[in-house]
Amino acid sequence: xxxxxxxxxxxxxxxxxxxxxxxxxxxxxxxxxxxxxxxxxxxxxxxxxxxxxxxxxxxxxxxxxxxxxxxxxxxxxxxxxxxxxxxxxxxxxxxxxxxxxxxxxxxxxxxxxxxxxxxxxxxxxxxxxxxxxxxxxxxxxxxxxxxxxxxxxxxxxxxxxxxxxxxxxxxxxxxxxxxxxxxxxxxxxxxxxxxxxxxxxxxxxxxxxxxxxxxxxxxxxxxxxxxxxxxxxxxxxxxxxxxxxxxxxxxxxxxxxxxxxxxxxxxxxxxxxxxxxxxxxxxxxxxxxxxxxxxxxxxxxxxxxxxxxxxxxxxxxxxxxxxxxxxxxxxxxxxxxx
Length: 338
Hints:
Number of strands: 9
Shape: rod-shaped
Radius of gyration: 41 Å
Mean pLDDT: 73
Order of helices and strands: EEEHEHEEEHEHHHEHHHH
Strand content: 15-25%
Strand order of the largest sheet: 1-2-3-4-5
Number of helices: 10
Low-confidence stretches: 193-228, 230-236, 238-286
């Protein structure tokens, strides 16, 4: 058999048990198993199924129809989360069989451990629809673990009584299975390596504080920064921004554009998370100023600005004043002569 698909057939006390593990895809080997299966009660142990794709679902449904025609009465036990997802999606995924037990995924936020808890379908179907998963405790810290799926969607198949109870003839089938023994661990580690590629190892010499995690990191947009001490393209000293953690200096806010004129860079900046300013430990060399004092230039700078300011020469005003005086003197002389 291939490395992806593994199977084992066990017969005990008139009950056949077929254990299938690995991946069910287009390369499955379900057809050769038909000759090894007998009629009567049959347990399908699917606890080690890691993944099943669309081609595997098609072959699976057709294969179940054929073995049921040969007299098999199907009971699904230890269904993995991959199988439970298909039971909720595909109406005839279990054919005419019933689901006896399945695994539910849990995650411990304290220990970062994943576990699968084995649940009995008939016990949960009594309280369906289920809005809250059963409580599961961690083996390491004994804390309450979080359910790692959506309760309403994961337990949706429990609302279908046909998939849980079947017809009355299944009662005798379940009694035969109980007499033969239904193997299955109450809790086991969760296996997700069949569908998720392994994380790449870090380069040699790179220190790592924690092991690789499947949680996606927060993507941050890099910003252009000029190293301290260099000059900016305009010729002046490069401003120090709050991106340099530990400097404790932040740039003053720029004047905001008018309504409807928000630039692309400003829009991108608003979408990024704000950085917390860093307080420096040493005292500043000069006390900070604020308010009107910050707007008043020093006396030396004011004097230099006054010296550089050009002197205005109101020549036109003097010309107009002289013309007015000459006109007034002429009118006065004309009045005295009369």
